Amino acid sequence: MNTGKFVISLDLELNWGVFDVFPLNRYRANLLGAREVVPLLLNKFQQHGIHATWAVVGFLFFSNKKELVEMIPKVQPQYTNSALSSYHHLQHIGENEEVDPFHYGSLLIDQIREFPNQEVATHTFSHYYCLADGQDQDAFRADLTHAITIAKQQNLSTTSIVFPRNQVEPSYLSVCENKDLTAYRGCENNWLYHVNPNGDGKLKRAMRLLDSYINITGHHVYCLEDLQEHRKLVNVPSSRFLRPYSRRLRLFESLRLKRIKSSMTKAAKEGKVYHLWWHPHNFGVHMEENSQMLDLILDHFHQLRSQYGMESLSMRDMSEKVLDK
What would the pLDDT profile of 200-256 be if each residue is shown by its tens digit? Predict the structure, then answer.
């Protein structure tokens, strides 16, 4: 009997993934909170036997600016909007992790590697936007090479990739295969989740928000045999983004939980894959409420594991199962 699979992935990017969206002074609490959230999540995952994938921006492997600057690739993305480039902002970052906890993450990575069943994947080297105007495949190849190299220098083997803002450029997947990556996170198979590099309108964003509480687009659970789209690279698509707690929507928390649990149950009963993801900094504020929601989700996983044999897998685990088949 084919048992259901429960996959969790997290995008660890700190300020490299949000500087062009939110000013630092507006998002400071979330980013500082992420440093408390990471060990909290690691302990929860160990307690519940969760295999998780942590997709880490390559810049975060460094603990000081000197080492980071020495490592940057010669070929860089030439975005039409230069504000998208992490390299454009290097002059504004602090000298080390102690004085600038928003742009360095070596201490967090050290914590992750100490826990069992935690995969460190890549979120590209510079938080690379694969669909942005001005970038090209050569720049992406250079970026990915540096991401894999810095991880290897710290004795970490990279086999999975999560594309920043889920911007998957199909022609770049061959680059990932050539770099021996075996898994990437695709998007939900519905037009609401198709990525627009120029941003989405208010209606589309509102419908995605509503879909987090009411089943509009389906459960987004997947059969194992449908995941291998390439010879050596497995698409482990998203099922649901775990939205952070919102005081404005607090009366609907039970609906948000029900939406997730019902899809997990469907995956468990039908032997399919359910993939939940979020950013640690999403839990950086309202930590107690977000933690309680995650506890309820993990408790439900325990029930499904007991009743249906549901397994917890990282993206690397998933690719191994699919490719072995």
Answer: 899 999 999 999 999 999 999 999 988 877 779 999 999 999 999 999 999 999 999
Q: Is 210 helix (H, G, I), strand (E, B) or coil?
A: helix
What is the Cα–Cα distance from 275 to 254, expressed in whole angstroms? 20
* CATH assignment of the domain containing 164: 3.20.20.370
Neighbouring residues of 325: CB distance < 8 A, sequence distance ≥ 6: 224, 225
250 CB contacts (<8 Å, ≥6 apart)?
Answer: 289
C-beta of residue 113 within 8 angstroms of C-beta of residue 121: no
Range of the domain at 169: 5-324
Q: What percent of the chain has pLDDT over 70?
A: 97
| Residue that has been written with the tokens 């291998």 in this structure | 228
Tally the C-alpha atoms within 13 A of residue 234's C-alpha that lie toward its C-beta. 24
Place of tokens 């009997």: 1
Torsion angle (degrees, nearest 10) of CA 159, 165, 171, 175: -30
Beta bridge mates, 122: 56, 161
Q: What is the pLDDT of residue 7?
A: 98
Q: Number of structural domains, the chain?
A: 1
Q: Is 153 exposed, middle or buried (0-12, 13-18, 19+ CB in 10 A)?
A: exposed
Buried b (16+ CB within 10 A) or exposed e, 19-37: bbeeeeeebeebbbbbbeb
Write the CA distances from 283 to 52, 122, 240, 279, 305, integer angstroms: 16, 21, 16, 8, 26
Encode pLDDT of 127-145 as tens digits.
999 999 999 999 999 999 9
pTM value > 0.85 = yes
- Scanning the structure block, which residue is given the tokens 């950086």? 284
- CA distance linking residue 222 with residue 226, whole number of Å: 7
